[in-house]
Amino acid sequence: METLAIGDLAARSGVAPSALRYYEREGLIRSTRTGGNQRRYHRSELRRVAFIKIAQQVGVSLDEIREALAELPEERTPTKADWARLSAHWRGKLEERILLMQRLRDQLTGCIGCGCLSLQRCNLINPADRLAARGTGPQMIVNPPE
Amino acid sequence: METLAIGDLAARSGVAPSALRYYEREGLIRSTRTGGNQRRYHRSELRRVAFIKIAQQVGVSLDEIREALAELPEERTPTKADWARLSAHWRGKLEERILLMQRLRDQLTGCIGCGCLSLQRCNLINPADRLAARGTGPQMIVNPPE
DNA sequence: CTGCAACTTGAAGTGAACTTCAACTCAAGG
DNA sequence: CCTTGAGTTGAAGTTCACTTCAAGTTGCAG
After folding, report:
1. What value does the mean pLDDT take over residues B125-140?
2. Domains in chain A: boundaries
């Protein structure tokens, strides 16, 4: 078995065939066809699907994933080095997201004492909502100062 | 200004009025009405909306958020202690998610050397896909062994 | 060579989380 | 009082990421 039928790729990757067809329509993965028009996947597509799944775990949209994958070479099967570059890039994104979550957690922790949820710094510290003029939303958390 | 009109709550929370109406239909927040049928929000709803936004950041669905909020007392305005309990609970969820991300990051880091993305452990270490029978998907990452 | 599981397509459906629209009413400053 | 920006409703529309369906075709084990 040199190439994979859609069912094989589905079984190996844990992604439903319908989703794989969808990914293909969306330009995230590619296949060749048999004489009878059935999809056959190169083994390297397994890696692409793995990447897609991982990126989704991180909360990245398919659009962004497509953009990332576009950085892989079209003409040849991506090498380890190609994947390494991409992975390194995503490691950065992951790191960022982890930091956001940690900030969220620390805010929550810091505010458990007062129960304020730190909307606009803290409603207890700032009871009159004096900061209301300063833009909307829990700025402190999403875009912390400095 | 003792209570907030929908526009005020929207401005303060950074959530569109249409979304606030939606949240109300979905039972996530509550309002009283003026004689002329306009919504007026108690200031404590600001906290609920903040909580909703934070939970969404963590990737929680509105359904789950509603369930969490259901643990707040209906009959009285939630106290600091009420929020503290809820926040502590969510801190756990956040912590969990952070751990998942960190595991993801470490996997990615560990695999940058081989470019494998660790689908079924590692395709380099395991080139013949011998583990294919062992369930689908990047199990190692989502449900790591031990 | 046959039978049947697995594949093909386009179109339509799903659910989550909202937004937009149209037609109308309210609240409050001048 | 009057104007006007803000609010009201239900229904329909939107985007994302798929799934389901129906009707037909293919590939391979026996």
Report:
1. 35
2. 4-97
SS3 (DSSP) at A56: helix
**B108 has pLDDT over 80:** no
Which protein residue lies nearest to nucleotide D19, measured between its Cα and the C1' atom? Answer: A18
Distance CA B39, CA B128 (A): 64
Whether the beta carbon of B137 falls within 7 A of nucleic chain D: the reply is no
Establish whether the CB of A22 is closer than 7 Å to any nucleic acid atom in strand D: yes
Return the structure tokens found at A14: 């844990």
Quote the CA–CA distance of B19 and B42 in Å, as a whole number: 17
Domain A4-97, CATH number (from 1.25.40.20, 3.40.50.80, 1.10.1660.10, 3.40.50.300) = 1.10.1660.10
The class level of CATH for B6-90 reads: mainly alpha
Banded model confidence at residue A73, pLDDT cuts 50, 70, 90: very high
Average pLDDT over residues A114-143: 41
B129–chain A Cβ distance below 8 A for any pair: yes
Lowest mean per-residue pLDDT among A61-70, B18-27, B115-124: B115-124
Note the CA–C1' distance, B39 to D4, in angstroms.
Answer: 19
